[in-house]
Each structure stands twice: as structure tokens, then as C-alpha cells.
């Protein structure tokens, strides 16, 4: 037992020494990026998949758990692959050109996005839409910061909120098929299902009454 403990401590010391070597920093950063991508993807997707699956999907408990596990694995894997690809290309470009420039980030992320998130599936679609909304806000703020558009005299957020909600409810009411499936499910629950009830049970306690056979 003592020999095993000594060997483990020696291995840990060797690993810690390796991690402190600056010449391996770029490669190690790529590996840790892969680890962080996998962990973050699982942390973000697991609770979301859990809620959406049990709230909207039918099927047995086994089927629901399998769906949650699959969604969590896909999100975790894709984010890990993307971070690995992005950081690897960033390190390669910096090594080839001797310095880091802004275009490196755009190019590396484009390649990673094409390779990892290019498949049009529900998980990737949600991630891209999430990023798109943040990009639009970020570019708007950058345009004001750089002076490309004037600083608004009043906070534009109330107008943005009004237009966005007006547009999404119009699409839901008249062009529902254009919306992402999970958004359709959420809005059906909020706006359509609230129009239907039979008694107190499915008015206050349940969303829909289970018909007895």
C-alpha cells in the first residue's frame, strides 16, 4: 500500500511539474479548453433538457431519461470539440505569425463553427440562436461605442422589448411553423393551452385533463 501511495504522489508531482512548464502552456490550454467545454456544456444542457423533457415530451421515464442524456452528451461534446478546435487554431496562427491579431479569432471560430456546429439539429440550432441574440446586442453597443451611430437620448430597451414580443407573438399566431420547436411548445403551453379547461382540476392543478378510459 505504501509503495502504491508513493508512486501516486510521484506521479502527481511529475504532472504538476509538467503543468508549470511555460513551453507547454499553449498545448495544455487547448486540453483544458476541451475539458471546460465538456463540463460547461453538460452543466448548461442537463437542467434545460430535464425541464423541457418532463414539461413537454411524452413517453416512458426510460425514454425521457435517454433523451435528456443524449441532449446533454451532444451539447457537452460539441462545445468541447469547438473550444479544442478554436484554441488549437489560435495557438497555431500565433505561432506561425509570431503574434496574435484580431483576425485570428474570427478565422479560428469560423472554422470551428463550420466543423462542429454546421449540422442543423435542434441542439446546434438553439446554441446558434442564443449566440445570435447576444451578437446583435453586442454589435449595437459596439457601434455606439465607436461612434458609428449616435448615443440614444433615451434607453431603447423598452422599444426593443415591445418590437420583439410583438413580432414573436405575431409569428406564433399566424406563422407558427417558422419558430423553433421548443419555442412553439412553450408558447402553446402559455397561450393556447390556457384557453382550454373542463373543471377545477385542469384549470388550477393540471394543464390538461387525462381522459379516463
Automatic annotation (TrEMBL):
GO annotations of cellular component type: peroxisomal membrane
Domain of life: Eukaryota
InterPro entries: Pmp4
Signal peptide start-end: none
Protein's UniProt name: PXMP4 protein
Organism: Psilopogon haemacephalus
Amino acid at each position: 500500500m505504501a509503495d502504491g501511495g508513493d508512486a501516486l504522489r510521484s506521479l502527481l508531482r511529475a504532472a504538476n511539474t509538467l503543468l508549470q512548464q511555460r513551453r507547454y502552456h499553449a498545448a495544455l490550454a487547448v486540453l483544458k479548453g476541451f475539458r471546460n467545454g465538456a463540463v460547461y456544456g453538460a452543466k448548461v444542457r442537463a437542467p434545460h433538457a430535464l425541464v423541457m423533457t418532463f414539461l413537454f415530451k411524452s413517453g416512458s421515464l426510460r425514454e425521457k431519461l435517454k433523451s435528456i442524456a443524449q441532449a446533454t452528451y451532444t451539447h457537452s461534446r460539441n462545445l468541447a470539440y469547438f473550444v479544442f478546435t478554436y484554441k488549437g487554431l489560435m495557438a497555431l496562427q500565433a505561432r506561425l505569425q509570431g503574434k496574435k491579431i484580431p483576425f485570428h479569432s474570427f478565422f479560428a471560430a469560423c472554422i470551428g463553427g463550420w466543423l462542429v456546429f454546421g449540422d442543423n439539429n435542434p441542439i446546434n440550432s438553439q446554441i446558434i440562436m442564443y449566440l445570435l441574440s447576444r451578437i446583435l446586442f453586442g454589435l449595437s453597443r459596439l457601434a455606439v461605442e465607436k461612434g458609428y451611430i449616435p448615443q440614444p437620448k433615451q434607453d431603447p430597451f423598452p422599444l426593443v422589448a415591445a418590437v420583439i414580443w410583438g413580432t414573436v407573438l405575431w409569428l406564433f399566431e399566424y406563422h407558427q411553423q417558422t419558430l423553433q420547436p421548443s419555442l412553439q411548445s412553450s408558447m402553446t403551453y402559455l397561450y393556447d393551452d390556457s384557453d382550454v379547461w373542463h373543471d377545477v382540476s385542469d384549470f388550477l392543478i393540471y394543464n390538461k385533463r387525462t381522459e379516463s378510459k
